[in-house]
Specification:
Number of strands: 23
Bound molecules: adenosine-5'-triphosphate, magnesium ion
Mean pLDDT: 96
Number of helices: 15
Structural class: alpha+beta
Strand content: 25-35%
CATH architecture of the largest domain: 2-Layer Sandwich
Largest sheet: 9 strands, mixed
Distance between the termini: 22 Å
Length: 438
């Protein structure tokens, strides 16, 4: 991608209403534009990162056995009347009337719709377990949309819904999502800690929020330091028997403000390991049994031929919120530092003198070689000053910067910089390419 032909409207300064660093940097890096309170247009650079995050989420869902579909954003109010949530949901729900006076709503979540799809087709326990997920825009008319994409009104969510014959089997589905989440966030370079969450009237212990620790997090959290340091389980697992793995991660104390109990925290956790911090909720998993299947009559025939209500769980990831969380966790004074896995480009090639034919030819050659190796390349072929080019490259946080100018070229070298560490080397092009594809 040639920067001169791209659309990267960077800003020198962030608007004053952007309070936290991720929001400021996303605006300055030309990733998003606010169209209304909590509603954003995704500009090309932002969209690239959103798609990368989405794809990691998708791959880990599929690995855990979930099946992707796509449900619409608009839903019929009558479906929500069946579960009783149409009236219960309150002012966060955006209610819409069509030309036939039919009541619709912009979905804040999809339990009712997925239950409706399930009951229309699945009649026997033999079709279970089933986990259906989609990655779709949601709308919640938040009282205080703020912090950019972190608390938007329109936001992208991955939501999965599991269906099982009984609670014991539902727990296995829950565990698969629990582990998928650990792997998902780790692939994005994040440490997300599972914390006990409120199960409300349903009770039980099967609800966890996945929390990224960050000073700007909206909720206070308390946990055992050792839990934060536990590595992700990885993919090579017995997906039917994850209980020990989940137990190892739920045995240690970890709770958000609402669930926190100071006495238990202190008795369970040695003083040196007690961590009080702030956190961002990037995911939430929840077993809720027959809450929807009972009123909506989602029943299957069990092994004895008797119909039973299915046991369900739902599993959300804040796909667009994750972008803010990743930036909160990974930036410096110069701008964003993307983890390789979610970076909008792999490398930016910086041409220090576009008027010099030899330099431009060397850049073209470098870009062609990198592309042939499967790299996503942003080529800064603009006639901006070198200082401005370096500042832009740092701001947008592409993991590698490959700079080619007349002086280096005369000496047969290019400069390769790693954004995360600032480390620079002057080496021949072939060696630079070797390093950044290693
Ligand atoms: P919160 O407590 O932050 O309001 P929630 O508990 O209402 O979130 P869930 O219903 O659990 O959210 O939704 C699943 C995930 O969607 C959350 O873990 C979060 O990452 C994301 N999410 C929820 N609300 C928003 C929002 N307004 N903007 C961006 N992401 C959101
Ligand atoms: Mg939640």
């Amino acid at each position: 991608m040639r920067l001169s032909r791209y659309f990267l409207p960077t800003l020198k300064e962030a608007p004053s209403d952007a309070q936290i660093v991720s929001h400021q940097l996303m605006l300055r890096a030309g990733m998003i534009r606010q169209e209304a309170a909590g509603i954003y247009a995704w500009l090309p650079l932002g969209l690239r990162v959103l798609r990368k995050i989405e794809q990691i989420v998708r791959e880990e869902q599929v690995r855990a056995g979930a099946v992707e579909l796509l449900m619409p954003t608009l839903q019929l109010a009558d479906l929500w009347r069946e579960s009783g949530r149409y009236d219960a949901y309150g002012p966060e729900m955006l209610r819409i009337t069509d030309r036939h006076e039919r009541e619709l709503l912009y979905g804040p979540t999809n339990e009712e719709m997925v239950t409706d799809i399930f009951r229309a087709y699945v009649k026997s326990y033999k079709s279970l377990p089933l986990n259906l997920f989609h990655i779709q825009w949601k709308f919640r008319d938040e009282r205080r949309p703020r912090f950019g994409v972190m608390r938007g009104r329109e936001f992208l969510m991955k939501d999965a819904y599991s269906f099982d014959l009984d609670e014991a089997l539902a727990r296995k589905s829950y565990n698969r999502m629990f582990v998928a989440y650990l792997n998902t966030f780790a692939r994005m370079g994040l440490k997300a800690v599972p914390m006990r969450a409120d199960t409300g009237p349903i009770g039980g212990d099967l609800s966890h929020e996945f929390i990224v620790l960050a000073e700007t997090g909206e909720s206070a959290v308390f946990c055992d330091r050792k839990l934060v340091e536990m590595p992700a389980p990885g993919a090579d697992l017995d997906w039917d028997d994850l209980q020990a793995l989940v137990d190892a991660r739920t045995a240690m104390y970890a709770a958000t403000e609402e669930m926190h109990d100071a006495a238990t925290f202190e008795s369970q956790t040695p003083e040196a390991d007690r961590l009080s911090a702030r956190g961002i909720e990037v995911g939430h998993i929840f077993y809720f049994g027959e809450k929807y299947s009972a009123p909506m009559k989602a029943r299957v025939a069990g092994p004895d031929g008797q119909d039973v209500n299915v046991h369900m769980g739902s599993y959300g990831v804040g796909v667009s919120r994750l972008m803010g969380a990743i930036i909160e966790a990974s930036h410096d004074a110069g701008g964003i530092i993307w983890p390789d896995a979610v970076a909008p480009f792999d490398v930016v090639v910086i041409n220090l003198r576009v008027s010099d034919e030899a330099v431009s030819a060397a850049c073209d050659n470098a870009v062609a070689q990198l592309k042939a190796l499967g790299k996503d390349v942003l080529y800064d072929d603009t006639d901006e000053r070198p200082g401005g080019k370096f500042a832009t490259a740092d701001l947008i946080g592409v993991p590698w910067q490959l700079t080619i100018g007349p002086k280096g070229l005369a000496d047969g070298v290019v400069e390769l910089k790693r954004r995360a560490t600032g480390e620079k080397v002057s080496v021949p092009l072939a060696e630079a390419i070797e390093r950044l594809t290693a």
